[in-house]
Write a structure and sequence with these properties.
The chain has 154 residues and is of the alpha/beta class. The chain has a single domain (2-146), classed as 3-Layer(aba) Sandwich (Rossmann fold), CATH 3.40.50. The protein is 45% helix and 17% strand.
Length: 154
């Protein structure tokens, strides 16, 4: 199992790295070359750099992810593409995407896009809060604890 992060603009990268270290889980951060960093990270953290195309990171993640992995993204479309691969997908606010919730989220995104094309304003995402941050950390820890328990029972 690995944790993949849709890295462009993710406010929870450092949290994931910290928590993954406690559970000895590999982290892959997929991000555009525009976000290249010289910062040193632990050996279990790997960066995968992609071109700056609109969906370059998404396509790379779809190719890299495998059964049992965890993905961190706020992209509903990407979540819908990887859920059939039997992975767990979390939003940066800690909400877990599932096969039962993703369809309604995609429908909401579609309807908002239609309204914007018609010239109407729609609400953007709410600012990332301290509570979102705490919820995310709690959700990731809980997911990793579940994996740990299930592997101990095998």
């Amino acid at each position: 199992m690995r944790i993949l992060i849709d890295g462009d603009g993710s406010p929870v990268k450092e949290d994931v790295i910290e928590i993954a270290g406690l559970y000895q889980v590999e982290v892959m951060i997929v991000t555009s070359v525009a976000h290249y960093t010289h910062k040193e990270y632990p050996a279990y953290v790997h960066f995968v750099y992609v071109d700056q195309g609109a969906d370059s990171a998404d396509y790379r993640i779809v190719g890299l992810i495998r059964k049992g992995d965890i993905l961190i993204t706020q992209d509903y479309g990407l979540a819908s593409l990887v859920l059939p691969k039997r992975v767990r997908v979390f939003h940066q606010t800690g909400k877990e995407f599932s096969a039962t919730t993703i369809d309604s989220l995609l429908e909401q995104r579609y309807q908002s896009g239609r309204l914007r094309k018609a010239g109407l304003r729609t609400r953007g995402p709410k600012p990332f809060t301290t509570q979102d941050h705490q919820n995310f950390r709690q959700a990731l820890i809980q997911a990793l604890e579940q994996v740990k328990l299930s592997s101990n029972n095998e």
